[in-house]
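During the second year of the project, the team shifted from modelling isolated chains to modelling whole assemblies. The rationale, set out in the original proposal, was that interfaces cannot be judged from single-chain predictions alone. As a representative example for this report, we include one of the complexes processed in the last quarter. Its constituent sequences, exactly as entered into the pipeline, are reproduced here:
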Amino acid sequence: MDFAASLSLVAPEVLLSVSGLLLLLAAAWSGDKASRAISVIGVAVLTAAAFLVAPALCVGASGPDTLAFGGQMRADAFASFAKLLIYGTAGATLMISPSFFDRYGAMRAEYPVLILFAALGMGMMVSAGDLLTLYIGLELNSLAAYVLASFLRTDDRSAEAGLKYFVLGALASGILLFGMSLVYGFTGTTSFGGIHAALAGGMGTGALFGVVFVLAGLAFKISAVPFHMWTPDVYEGAPTPVTTFFATAPKVAALALTMRVALDAFGPQADAWQQIVIFAALASIVVGALGAIGQDNIKRLLAYSSINNVGFMLIGLAAATPHGASAMLVYLVIYVAMTLGGFVAVLMLKNADGDQVESIGDLAGLSQRRRMLSACIAMIMFSLAGIPPLFGFWGKFVVFQAAVEANLVALAAIGIAASVIGAFYYIKIVKIIYFDEPANKVTGKSDWAHQAILAVCALFISPLGYLLTVWLGNLATRAASALFVAA
Amino acid sequence: MDGPGGFPILSAMLAVPLLAAVACLLVDAKVARRVALGATLIDLALGISLWTHWNFGGEQWQYVERVPLFAGFNYALGIDGIALMLIVLSVFLMPICIGASWRSIEKRVGEYMAAFLLMETLMIGVFAAQDLFLFYIFFEAGLIPMYLIIGVWGGDNRIYAAYKFFLYTLLGSVLMLIAMLWMVNEAGTTDIPTLMAYDFDPGAQKWLWLAFFASFAVKMPMWPVHTWLPDAHVQAPTAGSIILAGVLLKMGGYGFIRFSLPMFPDASAQFMWLVFALSMVAVVYTSLVALVQHDMKKLIAYSSVAHMGIVTAGAFAFNVQGLEGSMIMMLSHGLVSGALFLSVGIIYDRLHTREIDRYGGLSINMPQYALFFMLFTMASIGLPGTSGFIAEFLSIAGIYQMSTWVAFVCTTGIILGAAYMLYLYRRVAFGEQKNADAAAMSDLDMRELALVVPLALAVLWMGVYPESFLKPMRQDIAALDARIAHAAPEGDSRLKVGEAKAAEPDDEHGGAH
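Output from the structure prediction step:
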C-alpha cells in the first residue's frame, strides 16, 4: 500500500495533530482570553474528525484495506466506532468546561489543546495494529491526562490527583512495557497480526507471562479491580469536567484497546486470558459496589460506579465471541451516556454562591426545588442500577446474553446477583433526593450547555432509547465483526 | 386478531395511563387528580370492552399485536382468559386507588398520580406481554414507581420499607433474567406461547424452575421471603397497599401459572412438595402471626401471605380445580384485600392511627362502614355467598386430590383466618366506644361509598355467580392442565369416580366442579 493511501486512512489523526499544533500556537500567541474561541474551534475539529471516521463504520470497513503504514494502524469499523464515542465525549467535555473553570479564573487556552491531544492519543490506541502504536497512543493520551488532572493549580486536591495519576500511571505503563517486551521476545514480533499467528501455534510460559503483564497494565487503564485504587482519588481530586472526561473517553479507548489486544493479538489463546478477565470482571463488580456504599462524595461514588460498570463490560469480553464484543460496545455507548449525564448533573449542583456541591448529604430533598434535575439524576441512578425500562438495563442485558450464549451461565448468574449490591447505593441517592427533608443547599443556577447535554443524555437513557436498539446493535455488530475479520 | 375493527386495544390501554402520567407531572394538584381519574376510568372502560368482546371458545390468544420494534425481542401483546381476568382486576382497582387518595394525599399530588398511572401501564403490560423480555421489562419496571410511592408518601418507617421492597424483589428477579436468556438461547425464540409448548431438557428445567421460583416466590410472597410485604404494606399509603395487595402480588401467581407450570412441567412436579411445604408453613404460620398483630394493616398483610399460600398450593395441585381455585383466589383476594385496605384507610384518614386498640364500637357511630367492613371480613374468611368461598372451596378441592394432608393443613388456615378476621372485626366495630375520638368519627361520605360499593358488588357477584369469571379462563386452564398432565405426580386421595349420571344438558355450568 502506498504512502498516500495510508495517509488518507489516518486522516482523522492527521487533522487532529495539525489542528492541535496550530491551536497550540494560537494559544501561545493570543493568551488565555482566546480560550473560548479555541474551545469552539476544538469542538469543530472534533466534529470534523468524527465525520472523517464515520464512513468506515457505516460501510463496516475491515480487512487488509484498512491497514495503514504496513499494519501499524487499522482504520476499521471497530476503531471508527470507538473513535466516534471518544470524539463525542471529548467535544462534550469541551462544551461543559468553560463555565466551570471561569469561576476559578482557570480557563486556560491550552486546556482545549490538551483535550485534543488526548483524543488524538486515544484514537491511536483504538486503531493500533502494533504494540508500538499502542504504546505511543497510550502515552500521548496519558501525558495529556496527567496535566488535565492537575489543571486547577490552586487546588491541592487537583495537584494531588495529577501526581497520583502520574505515578501510578507510569507504574502501569512500566508493567505494560514489560509485558510487551516479553510478548515480543517470545513471539518475535510486535504487530498484532504477527502475535496472533505466533500464538496460534501454542504458547509457552514466557509468552503467558507477557500476556498477563500486558493485561495487568491495561486493567490499570480501565481501572478494573485489582488495579483500581487510583480511580476514586483521581476522580475526586480532578476538576469535575476533567473527571467527566476521564470517566468516559479514556475508558472507551482503554476498553477498546483491551478488546483489540485480547481478541485479536491474543485471540488464539483465549482460554489463557479468559480466567483473568472473569476474575477481574467479578472482582470489579463486587468491589465497585461495596466500595461505593460508604462514600459521601458524589464524585467518589461515581468513580466506584465506573469500576462496577467496567466489571459488567468485562463479562462481555470474557465471552470472547463476536457477540460478546458487540455487547461490550453497546454497553460502552450506554455507559458513556449515563456517565456523561451523571457528571454533568454533578456539575449542575451548586450552592447559592455558585460553588460546587459534592457532598451527597447536601442533596437531601433536592426534588422539592429542582424537579427536572432530580428526575434526571434519579433516571441516571436507576439506569446505572440496570432497572428496566431505562436504557442501562439494555447494556446489562446484551452483555449477559452474550455470556449465556458463550456458556458462562455461572459467571452471568454471579455477576447479576452482585449487581443487586450496586443497586443499593444507586437507590440510596434516589432516597436522599426524593425522600429526605430538604437541606436546601443546592440553589445555584446552572449553565445552559450543562442543561442541554444532560437533557440529551437523559433522553437517550430514557425508555425511548430502546427504539435505538436495532440501529445500535447493527453498528456494534459491524464494528465487532471487523475485529474478528482482522484476526 | 385485533379487537373489533383492528383497533390495538391493548396498546391503547398501555398508552392512556402513560400519557396521563406525563400530563400529571405538568399540571397542578387539582387537575392532576381529575386527569388520573379520567385516565383510569377510560382504561376501565377499555378493560370491560375486552371482556364483553371476548370470543369464548375462540383462539387461545386474542387481541394479538406484534411489532418487531426492538433488537432481540418484539413488542408483542396478546391475552388469554387468565390474563384477561387479571387485567380486568387491575383496571377495576385503579380508579378506586385514585379515589382513595383523593384527599389523603396532599403533597406532590401530580407526581403521586403519575407514579400510579405508570404502575397501571406496567401492570397491564405484565399481563399482556407475549414476549419474554417485554414481560421482564414490565415486570421489573414496577420497582421504580413502587419504590417512590412507598418512599415519598409512606408512613414513618417508609425508607426501610422501600429499601427492603426494592432489593428483595430485585434480587429475586435478576436470576430469572439469566434463566430467560438461557431459555431464549436454547429455544431460539422469545415468544411466550411458543415457549409454553417447548420441552426443555428435564435436567435444565430444574435450574430454570428455581430461577423463576426465586423471582415469583418473592413477588408472591411465599414464606420465608415474605418479610418485605408487611413492612411495605404498613408504610405504603392506602392506595399503595391496595395496588400492592390487589395486583402486584398477583404477578407472582400469574408467573407460576404462565411460566413455571407450562414451561417446566417436570421440574414443577419435582418441586411440588417444596411449594406445598412452603405454602403450608405460610398458611399456618402467618395466620398465627396475624392473630397477634396490633396494627390493622399488618394484620391484613399477613393474611395476604396466608391466602397466597393457598394460591400456590392450588396452582401446584396439578388438576383443573386447583388451578381454577388459585386463579379465583387471586381475583377474590385482589378485591377483598383491596377492600380491606381501603376500609382501614377510611378510618385511618379520620384518626391517623392503625392501632387496633384506638378504635372500638364503630358500628354505633359508623353503621354503614361497619356493614361494608363486615362484608369484606366475611369474604376474607370465605363465607358462602362471597368470592372467598368459591376461591377456598375450589383450591382445597384441588389440593385434596393431590394430597389430603396438605388439604388438611390448608383448611386449618381457613379456621385461623376466621379467628383473626373476626377478632379484628370485634375489636374495631363491636364493644364499647372506649375512645372518644373514635366515637366521634363520621360515617362514610359519598366519595367513600362510591369506592366501597363497587367492591362489595364485585365480591358478591363472584360469590354468587363465579361462572362469569371462570368462563373466560376455562379453556386456558384446561389447556394448561393437559400440558402438565404427563408430569403430574400421583395423588394420595385416590378419588373414585362414580357412575356418571345422564349427561347434563348444559355442560358449561359446573362442568369442572
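The interface with chain B takes residues 382, 387-389, 393, 397-398, 400-401, 404-405, 409, 412-413, 416-417, 419-420, 423-424, 427, 430-431, 434-435, 466-467, 469-470, 472-474 of chain A (CB under 8 Å). Strands of chain A lie at 67-68, 73-74.
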